[in-house]
Design goal:
This protein is mainly α. It has helices at about 1-40, 45-50, 60-75, 85-115, 120-135, 140-150, 160, 170-180, 185-230. The chain has one domain (about 10-230). The two termini are about 20 Å apart. Keywords: Membrane, Transmembrane, Transmembrane helix.
């Protein structure tokens, strides 16, 4: 009887675990859509918040909740089961939670271009793909992901898409000033320019590391609870 019950217990773990993973992913998509629609569209403030990708703050919170849930569900797994089996759902869901939000933003951007320029979705997608190829040498969702790492909000008007000019005047002036310097002052300007151009990637890496840490640490907390319950 004990041997026969194990497959059923593993099935319960994966059934409830998959439901928890789906809920985490759907919640992240809903949060990204809401923030992109109602927060990032705000004048001035929206652009600043978009550059900080505040919607991604939801990722470590959702991963912590998912981690503790999956950890607690290990109660249904046989004692001493393989660690890879315990972590497989969390490992699959982590990149999905981190990446799928950008797909939501990309689709919303294409629809916005289509609505503002009275184009079909296919025409808008062709136009935005051409723009992304010029800017990043990539198209579609991948190009959008690359572009928004350095510039938070892509243009939506036809003129700006065909003739982009999104360089900050202040940034241009600082770059020109830095090129006129020598020694340590020139080095300081070069470091500033590097940080300015790569800040978006740094923010994304920080969110990813924090999300992974929260997911794993809370998974082990949930697993400790499951082990205590199993011993009772």
């Amino acid at each position: 009887m004990q041997v026969k019950s194990r497959p059923r217990h593993i099935g319960i773990y994966f059934l409830l675990g998959i439901l928890a993973c789906v809920l985490a992913i759907v919640s992240k998509l809903a949060i990204v859509w809401s923030v992109d629609s109602y927060v990032y569209s705000l004048p001035i403030v929206g652009g600043v918040l978009a550059s900080l990708e505040i919607a991604e703050l939801a990722s470590p919170i959702l991963l912590a909740l998912l981690g503790v849930t999956l950890g607690a569900l290990t109660y249904y797994l046989p004692t001493g089961s393989n660690l890879n089996l315990r972590l497989v759902l969390l490992g699959i869901t982590l990149p999905l939670v981190l990446m799928l939000g950008h797909r939501v933003r990309y689709n919303a951007w294409v629809r916005q271009v289509a609505n503002q320029e009275s184009l079909s979705i296919t025409q808008a997608q062709q136009l935005t793909d051409d723009f992304l190829r010029r800017e990043t040498a990539k198209s579609g969702n991948v190009g959008f992901y690359w572009y928004t790492a350095t510039r938070a909000t892509p243009p939506t008007r036809l003129d700006n898409l065909e003739n982009p000019n999104d360089t900050s005047p202040l940034q241009t002036q600082l770059t020109d000033l830095g090129q006129q310097q020598t020694g340590l002052l020139r080095l300081a300007f070069d470091i500033y320019n590097w940080l300015f151009n790569n800040a978006g990637w740094g923010i994304r890496v920080a969110y990813a590391v924090l999300s992974g840490f929260m997911g794993l640490s809370y998974f082990y907390r949930g697993q400790l609870w499951a082990n205590r319950q199993r011993r009772q």
